[in-house]
Amino acid sequence: MGRMDVISLANKIRQYGFSGTQLVFAKALNEPVDFQNLEAIKQAFSGLQIMMLGAYFNPIHPDKEIVAKGIRNFKEHLQVASLLEAPYVGSETGSLMGSPWGYVPENHTDASLMEIIEVFQDLVKEAALNDVAVAIEGAWQHVVYSPERMRQVLDLIPGSHLQVTVDLYNYLHMGNYNDRISIFQRCFDLFADRIRIIHLKDFMIENNQLKQVGLGQGMMEWPILINLIKKYTPDASLIFEGVTGEDIITSYDLISNLLKEV
To answer: Considering the entire predicted model, what is its pTM?
Structure first.
């Protein structure tokens, strides 16, 4: 929706009809955030749910100073999340490429997995101290590249203070996009009880690449996907991510109508 002041942002969310938002301060607000005084943000979002605070960082960046900065920022978000009644603070699992977070084969090794496990174990301890949870999100290019890899993470970091964001589009690439329904099903089969957030995205194939488009304009079979969500995780927060402009309106109409169907 663009970057703007907090009151304008909250009002725009209401105008679209959404019940809440995923809030990433640096991406959404055009003014600095004072973590010592969040009252203005809390008041602006009165009546709206902050479904997740985004504090995305690359936990496996080759520059460990960048990792340390990301961890400090994430913990700062964990410490204030409850003040904003945000139950989760979220991040993806990163790439050894550094920046941008693209694919390199080493991302998918057990050594990389154990490196991010160490980081997230620390974050989960901080989350527990603040009575909130970390929301971890997988992506094929990153360390947690499949539902099965996510299950490994959950086994290695047990407990309620680590929950899951599922972004089906993030798990897809040119070699597996035709298996998207079965990949989504595997997420539910492996960890339905830990899924708290689902990112809704659509895509088409252009120039031999996946390209994100508005919901209903691409290849995702939304009646099937929404029925799976209703069956397995009816209480999950459904968040549009990367849906922009007029696509927000048509996407909202599509999903809200499907949710109303029996």
So the answer is: 0.96
